[in-house]
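lol so apparently i was supposed to do this last week
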Amino acid sequence: MTRGAPLGLPVLCAQTRLLVVAPHPDDETIATGLLVQQVREAGGEVCIVLLTPGDNNPWPQRWLERRLRIDAPDRRRWAQRRGIEMQQALERLGLAQTSLRPLGWPDLGVSPLLLHSTGSAVAAIAQELDRFAPNLIVVPSLLDRHPDHGAAHVVVRLALAGHAASPALFTYLIHGMPGHRGFVEIQATPAQVTNKREALLAHRSQLALSGRRLHRLADRPERYVEIGQPSLAADVLPWQPPRWLQPWLGLSVVNPTGAYRWAWPNAPLQRMPDGRFRLSSSACDQSAPCFAHLSLNLPSPWIFDHWGWCELQASHTPVDPVAA
Ligand SMILES: [Zn+2]
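anyway here it is w/ zinc ion bound
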């Protein structure tokens, strides 16, 4: 193992080709600011695939621009501002501007894009995989409660399912509670820690209202979990929403062939004796990997996912669809 290479990650060397999937500007710094420096210092290449420009970010914009109403031109201006901040952050991390691949997806709209335009979203990621040919990929965790982060995980997994190569795949978590599975922790030099802090300072628009929180997130140990087997066996959902809430819930299932969506009362679910719900759709029998998403179909100012995503495995035991 190369000296300084984090235990569990592939050896970082001149052949390392790290692709980081960042849903928003600043995720690359908070989650991977140390790792990308170590890859560059080992002589490897880094590509940051930025899914959204981070323009749906109204409260910091209201605060810094002293305006209440934010319209489309304002959002475009905010996206430009965040783009410049990101360029400065990448420079601080030792990355050239050519490392950045912005996809321009809608901020806070990655889940709808994935569920309504599965093929084109997956194809866009597949194109980046083909172009950069990474041998190491880091993506947001499926456990991340920001909806763009969980959906980012799913879209990359779907793209990899149709990809010839099998790069090492690790996840990072920014929003939410980490699981109990083993993780890899980056051991950094003081200079790398300083560079990461300075890169975070480049994201000035985000520090205006959330500086303390972002510094706390960026100062946490940088940890990665390798993608292994799904934590859930078979096709049992991890959620047991209360009956009174069920009329407002939506269940979605997505696999490499497409997406399926139901209102919860119409979803092909079987209630098991222990109270858990089993999905009896052929959706997760057809193709792997397969992911389910539970959402509340009511307007809410709260952007974070309460239930989020889970990964399913087909049980291959046919069950008659019945309403829950
Ligand atoms: Zn983010």
